[in-house]
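**Fold in tokens:**
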Amino acid sequence: MNPDLAFLVEVIVGGLLSGVMYTLVAIGFVLIYKTSGVLNFAQGAMVLFAALTFVSLVERGLPFPAAVAATLAVMVVVGLAVERAVLRPLVNQPPITLFMATLGVAYVIEGAAQLAWGTQVHGLDLGIDDTPLEFGGVLVSLFDLFAATVAGLMVALLTLFFRYTRTGLAFRAVADDPLAALNVGLRLPRIWSAVWIAAGIVALVAGLLWGARLGVQFSLSLVVLKALPVLVLGGFDSIAGAIVAGLIVGAAEKLAEVYLGPFVGGGIEGWIAYVAALALLLIRPSGLFGQRSVERA
């Protein structure tokens, strides 16, 4: 393969693999927003809490499988506690009230993580070396390939869950029309609890992958900011949109950094996705796959 073409493919593949990681974080937002209309800004703190709980348990001698199981149980409890103690009492409140509530929850979760596990930085080793693999002259990071595979499997499982399980169909019914779902006998509080549990599970997977890549530290909660352009581009209520937009953002960031970065002094990877999201907002506020809201006078 031509070296320039091989390098271009390498950049695009690296960006797509990073994009799958962004998708995983964004899906945590979509799950909550799709069923309850709440923009859950606490998702980043949940990612941090999951990663910090897991690595702390491992460092205290708990075997890897047991640490995963224990952390999963903790995240289920966290999801249920947030839904029942904070969001359920605020049902039917204005969206800004719910958003501010999740912002407060984010700080509470971060504070709880600090009290429980301390503030030191941890390394998280999943047993996957970050070594390059060569495919036809294209170098691909082994860890990025592993992380993208795990994230892709998680996305695929969630897609199957929503399409073919009774609970998943109930989620979709509530997302499409909460009042109609209530009228046919669906219990909304139970569904909201289930979706917060699902968001906690997604946070666990995202926390392990991002923690292994960046280290487990309190700045890990800022990974939530990586998901915002993905949500804007794909639509806040579309899992398919989160998948496609994550891939677009990942590839665009890498291409911009490599090919445009030298002309603007570098650092373009950190903000180019927000420029694209802002441009799309001006054209299509609901995102590429989001549903446009229709209000009748």
Summary: Residues 18-221 form one domain. The mean pLDDT is 84.
